[in-house]
Amino acid sequence: MSELRKDPIVERWVIIAAERGRRPSDFKPEPPPPTGGGCPFDGGMEAKTPPEVFAIRPGGGPPNSPGWEVRVVPNKFPALSTEGDVTHHGIGLLDWMTGVGAHEVVIESPSHDFNFALAPPEHMVLIFNAFIQRVQDLRGDVRFRHVIVFRNHGATAGASLSHPHSQLIALSITPEAVRQKLSASREYFMRKERCIFCDLIEQEMALPDRLIYANEHFVALSPFAARFPFEVHIFPRRHAHDFTVMDGDQKLALADCLQFVLRRYNEELSDPPYNLMLQTSPNLVPRPGRPDYWGTIQCDYHWHIEILPRLTKQAGFEWGTGFFINPVSPEAAAGFLRGDAPAAESETH
Questions:
Q1: Which residue among the candidates 103, 146, 153, 165 is catalytic per the annotation?
Q2: pLDDT in tens, 196-210
Q3: Which end of the chain has the least Cβ crowding within 10 Å, N or C?
């Protein structure tokens, strides 16, 4: 029988329709994108992108030259503009503001055939370092309240170029999806003086029906109210509100945990398209007139990564209700990604 499950962090319901019994082979992969052929993100093609804002060049060299391992450039077609001030406007029920922000592309390797799931852990650390440098730099701009790091893998997931890359967007507001988590975290902490994410991790590791993988520093879970088949959330096992405070050992452990999940996707789901989102703390710079602006985040928020395979499509019911329908139970998905159970099995929670 189907179940309606409520996400334990935010007010969101999901229908787990496991009786549909879809197997991994039922999710048809998209055709592979074309490779090579003068891609502007390839090494040696630096003149085809906007001037870089950051790069990691172990051997040195001038900006916008070859020899880099990770490179960050402004998006050629940005969603927001870095120029101008943030101004608010409104007439009655209608509110709007200037579209000020930043939109950058993290080119993860000069190689067009770079594989994020199979890369050496040391190179993954370079990519994490680029994320950290750019998030910290953008937080220095008081206009920006939140920076989201995300990766669209595959055309179905929104990738417009096949060369492996991630993106960052800095926003002048806190997005509603982020605000819901921050508010729920704060309310829970005010009642129990504990982090809701820490409690969730402890509970899920004790069960452990939805545990996929864990190492010393990180854990990968199939969320109780997963919106998509084989959705995975990755958490630091010890409380931390901010992705940018990781040390070297934690970065290597994150690479290990993340790549375990992505390798399982590659091996068993034929390298599906997916969206990966890094959910970290918003900018904690004090705001004039808002002395309490997210002032408890260090205690109550817990940064994490969400990976959403794009194996199903949303239609009228989803858009009309805000519900998601997931044909694979999180317990079956976790067992499958662990390698010890077929994903079509339906298990109780």
A1: 165
A2: 999 999 999 999 999
A3: N
